[in-house]
Model the fold of this input.
Amino acid sequence: MSFNTLGLSTPLLKAIKEQGYTEPTPIQKQSIPVILDRKDILAGAQTGTGKTAGFTLPILELLSRSKPKDKPHHVKVLILTPTRELAAQVGESVALYGKFLPFKSCVIFGGVKINPQISQLRKGMDIVVATPGRLLDHLSQKTIDLSKVDFLVLDEADRMLDMGFINDIRKILEVLPKQRQNLLFSATYSDEIKKLSDRLLNSPTLIEVAQRNTASEIVKQAVYPVDKGRKRELLTHLIKEGDWKQVLVFSRTKHGANRLAGQLESDGITAVAIHGNKSQNARTKALSDFKKGEVRVLVATDIAARGIDIDHLPHVVNFELPNVSEDYVHRIGRTGRAGNKGEAISLVCIDEDEYLANIEKLIKKDIPKVWLKGFKPDPSIKAEPINQGGGGRGRGGNSRSRPRNKAAQNTAKSKNASGRRR
Ligand code: AMP
Done:
């Protein structure tokens, strides 16, 4: 099946071709015709399935078919996302797919100055991608008018609920026109999602795509046993020997991420760190330099890397294993996306044996070990508890144990970062 049969017009087909997509993904095959038919949808689809194009393409098509109304540019499409990173990515996709159409779009999220967003909105935008908190700020300052919204998309609705955005969403719904098309995307179904969809959607078409293969099935994984003090040397060796051009390295702590990026730089490898202590602008710049290939290594903490989507990212390295096993699966899922090959390497010292055992239990398989000549662990070094030694001073650097409940943790995290949830 090709995109030509889905009812999309030439400017969109041209943009799709430029992206190199030859065939619609399962979610796109199902969602595009239904959305073009002006129906509400409730779609169970994870990030990585191509869901963004699944809703953006038909919305752009419908916009281009509709006759210009009283004002040429007013907000007709509102896309809500839980995180800034996802908002930025969806915004990029909207701009890419709408490249040959005359619509204007912008992205609105907190953590950056509001004034440039106000100027953008004043110019008149057709499509706004926003996180709920900052959108409410604009609503209260009357710098955005949502009274003519025809399409509402809730992207990663389950995460929005997990992050405590339900009241913000309710307030936003109040100012939207009653007559509109609603598209709800969620990776999981819970009672809360059911409640939300019941009040939001009109006789929705249910779309469910088979779970894509899990990252632990697609991604080639290896564990390199190594002494803690030699991890950086091994990482430099692997990057240089393998001539790796683009590597995402996970560090457990912010300090550790900064220190490692600095050390790699002094080894002659361009590197930058992203984590919650950096400003949103610094994070966006770091990510964009990394995507453009101007920086070889991006060192990230789990939270900062969440939602990052990099096409064709070939290498992920766990400089330290995460203490929450599920994070391992999220981390390695940054590579091997959309059918591409990916490799995830974990540098594991003796202190982390228990973390490794827990991860292997979770993914239900043993990760192959590679004992690299010259880097074999010194048998005289005994395991030490990882919590000892404090954050970022080289003995594992895990100064804080994380709650196992991800939702609670997300909420705590975003409250801490900004004083208020965004
Ligand atoms: P998403 O699930 O929307 O985050 O998309 C995941 C990745 O799949 C993105 O990097 C897209 O560029 C890519 N993608 C989306 N649609 C297609 C397609 N039809 N063929 C190949 N790649 C695609």
User: Anything to note?
Assistant: The pocket of adenosine monophosphate is lined by residues 21, 23-25, 28, 47-53, 309, 311, 337-338 (CB under 6 Å). Confidence is low (pLDDT under 50) at residues 388-422. The domain at 219-406 is CATH 3.40.50.300 (Rossmann fold).
